[in-house]
Amino acid sequence: MTATVPNFTDIHCHIVPGIDDGARNVAESVEMARQAVADGTTTLIATPHQLGGNRHVTVAAIQQGVANLRTQLEAAGVAVTVLPGADVRIEPELPRLLKCGDVLTLGDHGRHVLLELPHDVFVPLEPLLATLRKQGLVGILSHPERNRGIIANPALMADVLRAGGLLQITAGSLLGHFGSSCRKIAEYAVRQQFVHFVASDAHDTQQRTFGLRDAFAAVAALADERTARLMCCEHPARVAAGEAVGERKVAKSPAAQTTGSSWFRRRTA
Ligand SMILES: [Fe+2]
User: What's the gap in Å between 261 CA and the centre of ligand 1?
Assistant: First the structure.
């Protein structure tokens, strides 16, 4: 474990109360925020589910939920910044819904969209990512290590990166909370330098919590501390600020992927 752990920014958590399968009420939200702060997090992007089975979750409801939560956290003396966002199920109408403002981008900055695949199937993302790019948006695929298609064929992650997508793995996956298969894929993704973000995807105070401090240590052990800072701190902070995030050049062949020649080229867009 490193001696000095930096401040974390968490780009994926379900802390807005009573809106999805995350925090059930304000008390649980406040306790989640306390846990996040104790873990070293200073900024949270609240990302309730949108689309899929959560079509009832509107942008207005998320904005209002975040505003209310900020008030509650201030009253409770919990010092953490909370920004609005969404964890968006991939579906054909997504680009149109983004364009007309019915789906939230991360931090509501109009730059990054957090994309969720169904767990049991992989869908090629090239067409969607290309369409989003034309709209000035970058797609971030959440927890690829928990998708069955990717578990069966981890090289699909490189396809997402080549198509201009960014990847976010879940802290708990690196810690074994989702089983050995997810852990292996998450570790593979870190070693292959595929990962831009580690986030909590926290849902509650007991089962699906934050764990970024432990994940930071896991990434530092798998790669190095510089990599851990990029994945857990610097890249997430850039998303929270609405800034571009460094992208990988992904080699065209699996053999070339092992040369390790290309890390974190900064985007200028
Ligand atoms: Fe999520």
Answer: 32
Of the candidates 236, 216, 231, which has an alpha carbon nearest to the alpha carbon of residue 12?
236
Structural domains of the chain, ranges and CATH numbers in brackets: 8-245 (3.20.20.140)
Q: What is the sign, positive or negative, of the torsion defined by CA atoms of 130, 131, 137, 142?
A: negative
Q: Tell me the whole-structure pTM to 2 decimals.
A: 0.91
Q: Which tens digit of pLDDT belongs to each residue from 112-126? A: 999 999 989 999 999
Say how many Å lie between the CA of residue 94 and the centre of ligand 1.
Answer: 17
What is the Å distance from ligand 1's center to 3 Cα?
Answer: 30
Distance 199 CA to ligand 1 centre (A): 10
pLDDT in tens, 20-38: 999 999 999 999 999 999 9
How far, in Å, is the centroid of ligand 1 from the Cα of 89?
10
Sign for the CA dihedral angle at 6, 218, 176, 194 comes to: positive
Mean pLDDT rounded to a whole number for the chain: 91
Residues with CB under 5 A from ligand 1 (ion): 87, 201
